[in-house]
Design a protein that fits this description.
The protein is α+β, with helices and mostly antiparallel strands. About 20% of the residues lie in helices and about 25% in strands.
Length: about 240
């Protein structure tokens, strides 16, 4: 009997079992395809954009300054304006060098108000076009003006009232009127009685002994010459306060 012959082909080796190894820290243990990097990209540098924004602001700055300057001039010309006090005719209420703000909108005079008005004689100097513009500019900024162009006094008599000064006292329509704003020696020089014309004011300085007012050179002040009412002192800092 013959021996059985072994199969000439060797059997295929069995597949190895799947690995159950546990990754250790630092091991590059990958079970599948490499995951994409999920970190967000770094933001682009902003230097160029900031530089462009700064240049745009610098280009617009002169325009913004010009607009602010123009707005300030409009406000000071038509709404409120600063005035410089050149003399002592309103001492001690106002001192030389003070600056006050004047309300120019819808003003109706009352007795006791401190008002700024143009020269009642109407003799304003002829400055020409350029000089007139520069004067308007300086006026709007509150620079000092020649003392013979604008005046500041206190309203004493209104249109139609009769004013009299006697023995240092003030009488309006025959009745004595208190003057708490007077601090210096009384002025006993007589005046009147005189009736204030229509559409006019009788004004006096608080420093009666040293004031050019309606008693003497200025006379009655036409209403259309009144610029407005001074309501606050803004300079110097030690004298800032409301006017009464």
């Amino acid at each position: 009997m013959s021996e059985p012959q072994p199969d000439s082909a060797d059997p295929a080796p069995a597949d190895p079992p799947p690995s159950t190894a546990t990754p250790l820290p630092g091991d590059a243990f990958v079970l599948g395809p490499k995951a994409p990097d999920e970190r967000p990209p770094a933001p682009p540098k902003q230097t160029g954009r900031v530089d462009r924004g700064l240049l745009a602001f610098l280009r617009e700055l002169p325009v913004l300054i010009l607009l602010a300057f123009a707005l300030a001039l409009v406000l000071k010309t038509f709404v409120v304006q600063a005035f410089y006090i050149p003399s002592g005719s309103m001492e001690p209420t106002l001192m030389p060098g003070d600056r006050v703000l004047v309300n120019k909108v819808l003003y109706h005079p009352h007795r006791g108000d401190i008002v700024v008005f143009e020269d009642p004689s109407g003799q304003q100097p002829d400055r020409g076009v350029v000089g007139g513009f520069l004067h308007w500019l300086s006026e709007g900024l509150g620079f000092a003006r020649p003392p013979n162009e604008d005046f500041i006094k206190r309203v004493i008599g209104l249109p139609g009232e009769t004013v009299e000064l006697r023995d240092g006292n003030l009488y309006v329509n025959g009745k004595r009127v208190p003057q708490p704003y007077l601090k210096g020696p009384p002025d006993t020089r007589p005046y009147g009685p005189k009736k204030v014309p229509p559409d006019s004011l009788f004004v006096l300085g608080d420093n009666r002994l040293y004031s050019n007012d309606s008693r003497f050179g200025l006379g009655f002040v036409p209403m259309d010459k009144v610029v407005g009412k001074a309501f606050v002192t803004i300079w110097p800092p030690s004298r800032i306060g409301w006017l009464h």
